[in-house]
Amino acid sequence: MVMERNKIVLLNALTRRTRKSLNAGGEGFICTSTLSFDVGLNTRSIRRVLDEAVRAGTVERRDNGPGKSYSYRLRELAASAFRSSE
Hints:
mainly alpha, 3 strands, single chain, about 90 residues, three-stranded antiparallel beta sheet
């Protein structure tokens, strides 16, 4: 039950952050450390939940280079932003 609540809170935070980034002209990718502040979870727990969402196809992941945390964005929001910019 707690894990499901954390997943919902995390995906809501990612949705808000992705939308805000896309509206500001960014790519919509949000790093795990930023999400950690939003939801109060450690980055390992965040990665675990979001990597599961990547496997399910609802979230995209970007590698930011050696020693840097991954960034994630919601696939649906990114696709709709791309369509609206055409």
